[in-house]
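LacI family transcriptional regulator
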Amino acid sequence: MANTARSGQRRAATLNDVARLAGVSIATASKAVNGRAEVAESTRQRVMAAATEIGFTPNALAQSLIAGRTGTVGLLTSDLEGRFVLPILMGAEDAFGSGQISVFLCDARGDRIRENYHLKALLNRRVDGIIVVGRSTDPRPSLGHDLPVPVVYAYAPSDDPTDRSLTPDNVVGGRLAVEHVLSFGRRRIAHITGDVGYAAALDRAEGFREGLAAAGVTPVAEPMFGSWTEGWGRDAAAMLLDRHPDIDGFVCGSDQIARGALETLRDYGRSVPEDVSVIGYDNWEVLAVNSRPELTSIDCTLQELGRRAAQRIFEAIDGGPLEGGTEYVAPKIVMRGSTVASR
């Protein structure tokens, strides 16, 4: 009869080995390993010590069947290549990794049919929960309330207020930006931002107005809405400087726009930050640190948003309530040379 075991290969420890070493039945060893309540604590400790001694690892699938969980979560996104989505996914994945949760990542590419396909696939895999990550902060359609697992919406909030959503607080971010510029004594401040059709542009402009009003300062002009591009930043800054040569501060709705404003200020012979303070938004590091000077920016703390979304899923999986409503995640300022002169 052929020997099926390779020479020198150690056999994996089994539950039977644990039971024999601990001096208990296989049924008792199974209950102890899987955390069942009907085992005395002293017996449980003896069984776990035996398992550790011989290197026994419980079967993850068997444990999940007992607990009614699979230890998996789905991350369903609409824009996997987007620079806003990736930090959120990284934050969520970090949180899930520390909790020993495996992640299934699906990219719907903005296609509702593809999204429905991925959703069905995740449910067929019996994931314990789903995080839906949008491509912008504009509300997105809800997946509904007929799903058998908890769902949390990240970045793009659900259009159903009874769903749980997490999104950056762009109003606070706009206010934080203008307060930072005001702190350097600037009083002739303008706001250049992106497409008026985006919630982010409207919210950041609202925060800008609130910050000026709280300081008793009148804006040089109404916020200028356009595109999220350097070209728009250049053109809008030129228009504003032609009409209001005494401008001493630009609060921009994105880092691309701020880069364009910096170029125009150089063309007009205005020194940054000595003559004019400039602040961007999003803290896109590849743009911010390669600007001349380096660009101060508002960071939306997207990794923190992803971690919090994962925490809400953890809480729901553990039986906690998943209350509806939108949770706003506060941004922070990353100060660089466009507002703070280097020494």
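thats it. The radius of gyration is 27 Å. Residues 199-214 form the longest helix (16 residues). bye
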